[in-house]
Amino acid sequence: MGEPNPVLTVVADGDVRVVTLNRPERLNGVPEELHQRLAEVWRELAADPKARAVVLTGAGRAFSAGGDFDHLRRHHTDPDLRERSIRLDRAIQTEMIRFPLPVVAAVNGPAVGLGCSLALGCDLVLMAEDAYLADPHVSVGLVAGDGGVSLWPLLTSLLRVKEYLFTGDRIPAATAVELGLANRTVPAADLQREALALAGRLAAQPAEALRATKAALAVLVEQVSRGAMEAALMAERATMTSPDHIRIIDELASGARRRSTPPSAGPAATAAGKD
């Protein structure tokens, strides 16, 4: 028997596996349990002999709103959790880079913070026309150790990376395509179908050639990004207990409670006010 309400689901659609972040009531904000599953699922999928491609998406109206407020606040006083989170961030990035099968992101709504990094860590990115990306780590007093610093410069210009990481501004779907952060936009109603069709097309390609091509590209990505990844991870760990971060997260959590909304998506709350 599986979990009654798993935080992450994997469903087979022929030789495509659909991985869904499954906390729609929290905009798929990431607590420790989901953080752990995001580090584990790639090896599980790689060991599936019938899987040929993957679609990654979110349940409900968000792809993922990033770090869960409660989870972020626990880092302030729990050094063991800080170490675990850094290890998981490293594992997620490394496992996605080395994952042998093609992965299509179906960005069905906001992809913020870690959610943005998950989307951009995929091989191809389809975005609903009303979706957006944002990485407001800096805006909440953190360094973007989970992929913003190490991955974004491989996809777009360093000037634009600095603009969006420094400000935390939203990147609408059409702008993401212009910047090279997404492949194309799709009407929201068609997103799942289009993502499955694209994944199915990749699954039908000669498997050995596709895997070897992806593996060769992964060597490039790791060689270019490894130093920046480690520097950013260490800096993120240090800023988890910074006065700015503690103050901002406490203020955001208090504001969420006053509005009687679930305190679920730490960085998303900051990004929500940015265009």
UniProtKB/TrEMBL annotation:
Region described as Disordered: 253-275
InterPro entries, alphabetized: ClpP/crotonase-like_dom_sf, Enoyl-CoA_hydra/iso
An MF annotation (GO) of this entry: catalytic activity
Biased composition (Low complexity): 261-275
Protein name, entry field: Enoyl-CoA hydratase/isomerase family protein
